[in-house]
Amino acid sequence: MKKLVLVLSVLLAISTVMAIELVDDLGRLVSIDKTPGRVVIASPAITYYLELLDVTHTIVGVTDWDSFALSREVTKIGNLTPLNLEMILSLEPDLVLISGGFQEAEVEKLERIGIDAFVVNPNSFEDIYRNLTVLGNIFAIPERGRNVAAEFRNGVLEVAKNVYNVPQDERPKVMYVMIAGSVSDIWTCGTGSFVNQAIAYAGGANVAAPYSGNNGWFPVSPEFVLNTQPDVILVPYYYEGGQREAVEMVTSYKPFAGVPAVKNGRVYPLSDSLTAYANPRFIDLVKALMEYFY
Amino acid sequence: MDDVIVIRDLRFGYSREEVLSGIDLTLKQGEVLGILGPNGSGKSTLMAIICGILKNWSGSIEIMGSPLNDYAGKRLARILSYIPQSFDPSFDLKVETIVSFGRNPHLKGLSGPGVRDYEVIDEVMELTEIYGFKDRFFSTLSGGEKQRVVIAKALAQEGRILLMDEFTSHLDPGHSRKVGKIATDLVRAKGLSAMAVFHDLNQAIEMSDRLVFMKEGKIEALGEVWETVTPDIIWKVYGLRAQIITNPVTELPLVVFYD
Amino acid sequence: MKKILLFISIATASLIGMLWLSSFGTVKYSMFEVIQMISGSLTGSRANIYMNLRLPRLLVAFLIGSGLAVGGNGLQLTLKNPLADPYIIGISAGASFGAVFSLFIKEMSRTTINMDMMAFLFAVFSAFLTYTISRRGGRIPITTLVLSGVIVSSLFNAAVTFLVVFAWRNVITLHFWSLGSLSGVTWGDVLKLLPAILFQYFVFTVIRRKMLILATGEEHAITVGVNPERIKFVVFFTVSIVSAIAVSTAGLIGFVGLIIPHMVRLAFGTDNRLNLPATALLGGFFLIVCDTFARTLFQPTELPIGAVTALVGAPVFIYLLRSKEVVRNG
Questions:
Q1: Which domains does chain C possess?
Q2: Does C230 touch chain B if contact means CB atoms closer than 8 Å?
Q3: Torsion of CA A137, A138, A144, A148, to 10 degrees
Q4: Interface pTM, i.e. ipTM
């Protein structure tokens, strides 16, 4: 009997020591007391990490826009901002995974009502790699985390290897054109964005690379397109079948008629699920880009 | 002390033009002083200066023996009441509420009206014959009734001096006479003094003890009714030809225009 | 006497209405549960959600609605203008600039300046700015007031956008913030708002008579011994405190200060002693109703509450603009 008590108390002590502390993408020190069994994902960008790590059984709630909810019976918690805190609290989660950026204010709200939140806000290939290992630690599967992360890194480098020695002047000049409403309102990505990084890995030369903005994104006028004369223009589309419409937004704009990309029919659609947020689909993005470039 | 208001060399102007250029005037205890003159002669400006609305004048004004600038807001309002041309509050208020505003100068700090104040309010409403509709809203009243409410408000201030600025000119002749009479009768009955701007020459003559004619910020004539009202002065001030006859009923001058 | 009965019935209906509305939301409660939870006899995780999220949210909605309505009432009297309201005349926009500016300073220089304080400073500034721009020879005509308010508001909104772009913050947060939301308010916010709302209510009760005198015209006020500038200063100052705290708690919420005082004037009259209590009560209840819509209409997604109040308020604003009360003051 005494032995049993001893063993139990040792086990208890070990499990207490098991509490880990991690730094998230906002630089917050988060301590994880026990392996989360109930997780709410407050940003669709994060769901894919859990799919790769094979811990989707812990998900108890996702936002309305999360494609995860299409295939599974899972509670929808509404918008990314403002978060429906009552809904989240009623799901009694051990952990809420959330993005940074415009969700930063929501992180504070979660803290105030005493819900553990961990911010996953990657901006680059390296961030994605690190977040895979960090999430592996959180879910107490560090080995799997490391493996998945390594797989991801090797996968990307494997693809990138094909073009890494193409000389600069032989690379296509590429511009990512996100049109908000009308052609006069263009957002593009420069240094600091993961799409810029993907273009480089895929062997393109991003014409916006010398510039930067919030997370690497910044607005430009149509003149920027005429001035840089890109060989390839990439446009995001937001729903299956929206490819043609997205491309035509650019090709039908008269002033762009002389731009090489338009002249040579090299305006390509990209699914926004690849470009909207940085997650391990990065590898698919690089592959898709390379196919367009070469 | 017979002079309740003494004005010496009063000057006032906006940035460039001078509106009053050297006014000398006294208001005697117990009299009604009628002020006449064409539009823009400075009558209303004079009124606004005396009751403290306009500042930045020069010269000297003494009220009950003390300089005007020595009076703080409430103290001046306890001596002086003002009845304007029209009174049009932005929000609808009850008659009694408006009359009660006249008690403000007598209230201490932020406290509300007391028993004595309500006695005064009731009394002035009786005097001006508005007690019967004290709970009605101001906007529902006729023009004549409205001006009587404003007079009641001014009387509730219990000041010794009343300033009236064309206070009957928006009314039809019937109401104009009635309201004018109520006001001047009250001034005499209560032994007050009043300065009144008039629009109508003959009404001014009938209701005033003395008259002042103003033009372009200056006083052209000042004195007893029979002394001041002459064809000359009417030509000079208004640019109109007139004949002065004796009013058969009041035996006061009656101005008849003929061009 | 009739008015007192009316007031008592409105008060009773509002109280029951508030408790009833508080039962709606992502988590649904029965009235019985609500009463049990408030009295403390029901605990557990459902009660935890109610007591820590729903109830403070309900109270914050009441306090902000009440504060904005009473503030609007005071501004209308002192500016002699039935369209005055903290949102219309730009106080809220000023406050929101101040709040964002404090975030900006924090971001840029790592020094923390109290957000409420900053919001307050700019609220006062914008109030006097609108007032100065719209003043025409001692009067504040409706059209110039509304136009100046629009100008001051867009000035500060532009400044907010500028700061956000400059600080590389995401614009989407701003969008939600500029329409206001009561999501995530806590008991701390209740405690922060309460003194400000009580202070404003107390001040306006005390100077109510002078505000009414001022509403009859500045010249009249002077001739009965009221100093218009002093009253206006006190009112602007007080309204700015309340707007600043309301904005830094819940963002921009418009029109409450406009429609509630108008409805109360119709029901009770301007000079009725129940006018101010009724304004406070109905303003609070109105915002609770709007928040209930915001919370439940597109569940589980939440609407910004400012969008709901604008949806109700804008038509009333248009009606007011064309009504007698305004034409008379044009």
A1: 60-329 (1.10.3470.10)
A2: no
A3: -100
A4: 0.89
User: Is chain B adjacent to chain A, meaning 3+ CB pairs within 8 angstroms?
Assistant: no
Please tell me the pTM assigned to this model.
Answer: 0.85
Give B229 to chain C, closest Cα distance, Å.
32
Contact C49 A109 (CB under 8 A): no
Tokens encoding A120: 């996953």
Domain boundary among A109, A132, A158: A158
DSSP-H helix ranges across chain C: 2-21, 31-39, 45-49, 55-79, 91-109, 115-134, 142-166, 171-179, 187-206, 208-215, 218-223, 228-250, 256-268, 275-296, 305-322, 324-329
* Cβ-based burial of C233 (10 A; exposed 0-12, middle 13-18, buried ≥19): middle
Q: Are A201 and A156 in contact (CB under 8 A)?
A: yes
Residues A26 and A169 grouped into a single domain: no
- B34 interfacial to chain C (CB closer than 8 Å): no
C26 close to A (CB below 8 A): yes
Chains C and A touch, using 3 or more CB pairs below 8 Å = yes
- Residues C308, C286: Cα–Cα separation, whole Å: 11
Contact C170 A102 (CB under 8 A): yes
Whether residue A154 sits in one domain with residue A9: yes
Instruction: Give yes or no: residues A10 and A66 share one domain.
Output: yes
**Do A182 and A137 reside in the same domain of the chain?**
no
In this structure, the answer to whether residues A149 and A11 fall within a common structural domain is: yes
A241 is in which domain, residue-wise?
A: 163-293
Sign of the CA dihedral A234, A238, A244, A246? negative
Q: What is the dihedral of CA A113, C100, C289, A107, to 10 degrees?
A: -20
Structural domain count of chain A = 2
Q: Are residues A104 and A231 in the same domain?
A: no
Are residues A223 and A266 located together in one domain of the fold? yes
Chain A residue with CA closest to C249: the answer is A109
Name the residue in chain A with its Cα closest to that of C304. Answer: A82
- Whichever domain contains A240, its CATH number is 3.40.50.1980
pLDDT at C138: 64
Single out the residue of A129, A230, A121, A151 nearest to residue A186, CA to CA.
A230
pLDDT at C205: 95
Please say which residue of A141, A158, A175 terminates a domain.
Answer: A158
Q: pLDDT tens digit string along B87-101?
A: 888 888 999 999 999
Q: Do A77 and A125 fall into the same domain?
A: yes
Q: Tell me, what's the pLDDT at C328? A: 47
